[in-house]
Design brief:
Layout: H1 7-12, E1 20-21, E2 29-34, E3 37-43, E4 51-58, E5 61-69, E6 80-83, H2 90-108
Antiparallel strand pairs: 1-2, 2-3, 3-4, 4-5, 5-6
Amino acid sequence: MKYGITKEFELQNRHPITLKRTTMISSRSESFVKDSVIYIWRFDKKINDFCMTLYSQRGGIEEIVAKARRPWHFENTGGCVIMDESKIDKLTVVLTTLAMWRKLRLRTNR
């Protein structure tokens, strides 16, 4: 076990989860696949990058699974994540949120 991951989580998730850009032109959204369901993180507004929403795509229908809000530029810590636990597990949402914030921080040097 690494980083506090439980045995149940390891048994549920047999393949690694990788965030990828949805299109090569736009870097405003990232997607990953878990249990044959496509999940897409999208920023809520084009101007700012503080709020983002996680959608699940099943059979062509998009459903909101989680929302995240990161802190302002001058704040070093903080943030908020709201999720529907019946649609996706907590650890996947938290880890992909942190990965999105990390990519954003590296991209914009904030």
